[in-house]
Amino acid sequence: MQKNSAVKQMDNKVEEKLNVIQHQLRKKIHCENNFSLDELKLVAGVDIAYWSDNEVDYGVCCIQVFDYLTKKVIEEVEYVGKVEFPYISGYLAFRELPLIVKAVQKLKNTPDLYMFDGNGYLHIRNMGIATHASIELGKPTIGVAKTYSKIKNVNFTMPPNSKGTFTDIVVDGEVYGRALRTRVDVKPIFVSCGNWIDLNTATQITMHFVEEDSRLPITIRYADLATHEARKYQKLMNK
Predict the structure, then answer these.
(1) Are the beta carbons of 52 and 87 closer than 8 angstroms?
(2) Those residues with Cβ within 8 angstroms of residue 24's Cβ, 6 or more apart along the chain or in another chain
(3) Which residues contact 14 (CB under 8 A, 6 or more apart)?
(4) Which domains are seen in the chain, by residue range?
């Protein structure tokens, strides 16, 4: 009992430190555009997949870089590494950022904007992976999540069943993000500002990359598919 209590106290102290860091970083959030859509050339989709081998956690970060106008992939990279940080709800960025930074360092092209499979401002402390990564990378970002994690017991309202419709998710009188219906008869996705972008522009860019065969923008979809393939390959190699 004493050992469990000591571990719990240690975990609480870690969370307290992470909480302080997130609140300090919140001062650097700007939910307004620092770029013009006319100047947007390269947009990257980012996703991460995890697995364990012999009780060691690994992750692979895949980045797909798209030409904004043609929507064609011009570069793709991946980085595989050990995961040193444990999973702690609300603090996922601390686990994922080391992999993301290493993957970004492998890019030959410099994206103008990054889209992340995850949240940005739509987070209990407004510090989802898209927001935290923006501060680290110095680039505008968008968070695109497949599901909604309830914040302060606030539910989202289902948007009308039409392409491009949305409902805003308001917490304590502030818009944190929105539920976006990208296609008819599909579940909504959840879009939020990462940093240096406003929510309407984030929605516009997300819809720009949505094609007829998926509810997700291809930036996120392709990155997601790449992580699954990379994880499968790594598991086969390590058998």
Answers:
(1) no
(2) none
(3) 88
(4) 2-237 (3.30.2170.10)
The reply, when asked if residue 117 is annotated as ligand binding, is: yes
Q: Scan for tokens 């008869």, then name that residue.
A: 185
Give the three-class secondary structure for 147.
Answer: coil
47 is in an annotated binding site: yes
Beta-bridge partners for 88: none
Smallest CA-to-CA distance from 174 within 26, 36, 37 is with 26
CA distance 105 to 179: 32
Instruction: Show the tokens assigned to 74.
Output: 């011009």
Longest dimension (CA), the chain: 61
Task: Give, in order, the Cα–Cα distances in Å from 90 to each of 46, 162, 167.
Answer: 19, 32, 23
Separation CA 195–CA 132 (nearest Å):
8
The answer, yes or no, to whether residue 213 has pLDDT greater than 70, is yes
| Torsion-angle region of 4 (φ positive above 0: left; ψ -120 to 50: alpha; else: beta) | alpha
pLDDT per residue as tens digits for the range 31-68: 999 999 999 999 999 999 999 998 999 999 999 999 99
- Residue 177 CA to residue 204 CA, distance in Å, equals 13
pLDDT in tens, 115-148: 999 999 999 999 999 999 999 999 999 999 999 9
Q: Are 234 and 58 in contact (CB under 8 A)?
A: yes
Q: Is 222 helix (H, G, I), strand (E, B) or coil?
A: helix
pTM of the model: 0.94
For residues 179 and 161, the answer to whether their CB atoms sit within 8 Å is: no
| Whether the Cβ atoms of residue 58 and residue 80 lie closer than 8 Å to each other | yes
- Which parts of the chain are beta strand (E)? 42-53, 56-67, 73-82, 113-117, 141-145, 166-171, 174-180, 189-195
